[in-house]
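User: Show me a protein chain along with its predicted structure.
Assistant: Here is one chain, sequence first, then structure tokens.
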Amino acid sequence: MKKNILLALMLVLVLSACSKKQAPVETIQTQGNTFDVPADALEPEFESVDYGFRVKGPEGWLKKADNLGMLVTYLKPGDPETFQENISIARELKGDLNLADYAAGTVTQVQEFFPESTISGQTETTIAGQEAVKLRYVMTVEGLTLETEQVIIERSNEFMVLTFMAAPSQFSAAYPEFTKLLDTLQLVGDEVGS
């Protein structure tokens, strides 16, 4: 009897090992290189239960979760002329700051770190039902000029920062993808509210 049970368990283990599938991969080309990525990296949806939001990124853009301090980054595929257009989402704890103070501090930091930068716009808005500030600026980083729009959303204990960056020659063409992403942003949980 024990031998039959042992054989049955071994059969289950062997069959389950045989049935395990490798994670599907997709081959993409970006920045002149071709490489394989997990298939879900091309799925535009991203949800963070921990930080209470979900969003749908641009179709066909590479999604990288938890990338260099960002909650999620979307990279436009292809071979960019000078810079790979991208959208990133980050968060920062509020501390004692309100939205106006945080936005002013962001402008100050951009001007300090990138002295040749130009702030071309700052507007108050509402995104996903929350107060927000949009900042638009052009900055030069190591000789590379980038146009950037940041949307800062105030939440109960944090600021959510959504950033779109592109070379000025590519900004207008890719900008609609950023606005679509903003339109899909859903804030959920007890993080909502300021």
